[in-house]
Write a structure and sequence with these properties.
By secondary structure, the chain is of the alpha+beta class. It has 10 helices and 13 strands. Strands 1, 2, 3, 4, 5, 6, 7, 8, 9, 10, 11, 12 and 13 form a 13-stranded mixed sheet that branches. Helix 2 crosses helix 3, helix 2 packs antiparallel against helix 4 and helix 7 packs across helix 10.
Length: 338
């Protein structure tokens, strides 16, 4: 345990510096006085005796520095000295100090924000079941690998692809809520049936949309957020089956999402409605690309490259069948996290 005793002795040296320096000064003076007395007894003059004593002892300051290095933690001691010097310099220049502190604060704040975003987006896993199997599917052209698909092509993808367990669509749509309670403008999403089960997200209450509801003319239904459920319905299970009025349409609540759910990094939406109810024309016109994201879950034994190869084949067939609207679209399949 010799190293431990040495470490403790050196650590104490950082806090007893003034006392130890005085003891060292006294010891050096005592040693020089003894040597001077010996030199005087040998017949030297006082000046000669002091000079010879100093010559034999060596550099006093070098001895002090060597002793200080041995008794303390050199790196820590040096850092403390630099810090004290920096503080004295800053105290003498208050204007420069203010600019330096402001610059450091902005730099630290910016780096903290960037790292927090990096950690949340890149390092942290996505909050979905087996998220590594989730991918997005896009049209692709030479200048843009992510072009929104048309609704008819999406339906053909979902019907014909064998590489995926499930495929879903999600897009943004705001709503004005006028009942129950105070009117409020809400952030909303339009989704295809089975979207939450594809992600592996369980609803807090109720169910997802059925395939019959996810059609033009389907029953007007809605899934609401945990926030809206608590604010408008007091977190009552009896909220299921009641209605909310969105854009003048009464929609029946069929499900409630868990707290904190969001998709795509855009924050929590308050209402989710069936995608294909809003505009029946979307279901048939391949020239319209309404701006939704296609998300799919790979089967366990299928790679992204295999899925992309299959999707390219499917899309090439659609391009040949509908040359007037499908302008030789390519396909891009990439991890949802990307």
């Amino acid at each position: 345990m010799t190293w431990l005793r040495v470490f403790i002795h050196r650590l104490l040296g950082l806090f007893l510096k003034r006392k130890l320096d005085q003891e060292l000064e006294d010891e050096i003076r005592s040693h020089l006085d003894m040597q001077i007395q010996d030199n005087l007894r040998q017949g030297m003059s006082p000046d000669e005796a002091r000079y010879e004593a100093m010559r034999k002892f060596g550099g006093v300051e070098q001895v002090k520095e060597s002793y200080r290095d041995r008794r303390s933690l050199a790196v820590v001691d040096s850092t403390l000295q630099d810090l004290r010097y920096a503080l004295r310099t800053l105290r003498r220049s208050p204007g420069f100090t203010a600019v330096a502190v402001l610059t450091l604060a902005l730099g630290i704040g910016a780096n903290t924000a960037i790292f927090s975003m990096f950690e949340g987006v890149v390092l942290a896993p996505l909050p979905y079941r087996e998220a590594e199997r989730l991918v997005t599917v896009w049209y692709s052209i030479s200048v843009n690998p992510r072009v929104y698909p048309s609704a008819p092509d999406f339906r053909d993808w979902r019907r014909n692809a064998r590489s995926f367990e499930k495929m879903g669509a999600i897009g943004g749509r705001a709503h004005d809520l006028t009942n129950p309670g105070t009117p409020e403008h809400l952030d909303g999403r339009e989704i295809s049936s089975g979207f939450f089960s594809m992600l592996g997200v369980n609803l807090r209450l109720g169910r997802e949309f059925s395939s019959q509801e996810d059609q033009p003319g389907g029953d007007p239904v809605v899934i609401i957020s945990n926030r809206l459920w608590q604010d408008r319905f007091g977190a009552s299970p009896e909220a299921l089956g009641r209605s909310v009025t969105l854009d003048g349409i009464d929609r029946t609540i069929v499900g409630v999402l868990p707290s904190g759910f969001e998709f795509g990094g855009h924050g929590e939406a308050d209402v989710y409605t069936p995608f294909w109810q809003s505009n029946p024309v979307l279901m048939t016109d391949r020239a319209i690309r309404p701006g939704f994201t296609c998300v799919a879950r790979l089967k366990p034994d299928v790679t992204i490259d295999q899925a992309k190869s299959e999707m390219v084949t499917i899309q090439n067939s659609l391009n040949q069948l509908y040359p007037s609207t499908n302008d030789d679209w390519g396909i891009n399949v990439e991890p949802l996290k990307q």
